């Protein structure tokens, strides 16, 4: 619901009411316009014929996004963390990414995110698996 979260992509892709279902669901068997909207939001750098196997996903529990999580500087704050910023991201607005990183870094200024950049969509595992693996292997 944050203004930083608005991208204009994927906002009408979920099936049913996530609150009533307790899950966020997409339709990997939708019509052509739905499938293109799904690809444009999450797989915009994957060819139309190649993205469907990656889109075949079960519903994700709504609690993933809505559960309250308590963190402390002493526990979570001491774990090294990394963030791979995808430059072609449409599903998670860059402004929201910046907000999350900024707030986490402010909470633990002595343990800031290690940031890397990848010229990819929301789904680099589909579009650039080798480059993604290389970046992940190189994280501290």
What does this protein look like?
This protein has 140 residues and is α+β, with helices and mostly antiparallel strands. Helix content is 39%, strand content 10%. It is built from 7 helices and 4 strands, in the order αβααβαβαβαα. The strands form 2 sheets. It has a two-stranded antiparallel ribbon. Strands 3-4 form a two-stranded parallel sheet. The longest helix is centred in the last third of the chain and has 14 residues. The radius of gyration is 17 Å and the shape is globular. The two termini are 33 Å apart.
Proportion in β-strands: 5-15%
N-end to C-end Cα span: 33 Å
Tell me the overall shape. globular
Quote the average pLDDT.
Answer: 91
Number of strands: 4
Major sheet summary line: 2 strands, antiparallel
Radius of gyration: 17 Å
* Number of helical regions: 7
- Give the helices and strands as they follow along the chain: HEHHEHEHEHH
State the helicity in percent bands: 25-40%
Q: What low-confidence regions span 5 or more consecutive residues with pLDDT below 50?
A: none
Structural class: alpha+beta
Q: Spatial order of the strands in the main sheet?
A: 1-2
In short:
The chain has seven helices and four strands, in the order αβααβαβαβαα. It has 140 residues and is α+β, with helices and mostly antiparallel strands. The protein has a two-stranded antiparallel ribbon with strand order 1-2. It has a two-stranded parallel sheet with strand order 3-4.
């Amino acid at each position: 619901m944050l203004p930083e979260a608005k991208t204009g992509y994927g906002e009408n892709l979920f099936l049913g009411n996530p609150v009533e279902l307790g899950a966020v669901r997409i339709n990997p068997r939708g019509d052509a316009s739905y499938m293109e909207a799904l690809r444009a939001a999450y797989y915009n750098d994957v060819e139309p014929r190649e993205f469907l196997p990656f889109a075949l996903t079960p519903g994700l529990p709504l609690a993933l996004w809505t559960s309250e999580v308590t963190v402390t500087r002493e526990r979570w704050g001491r774990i090294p963390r990394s963030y791979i910023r995808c430059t072609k991201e449409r599903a998670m607005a860059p402004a929201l990414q910046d907000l999350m990183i900024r707030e986490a870094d402010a909470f633990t200024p002595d343990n800031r995110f290690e940031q890397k950049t990848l010229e990819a969509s929301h789904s680099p595992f589909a579009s650039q698996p080798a480059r993604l693996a290389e970046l992940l292997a190189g994280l501290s």
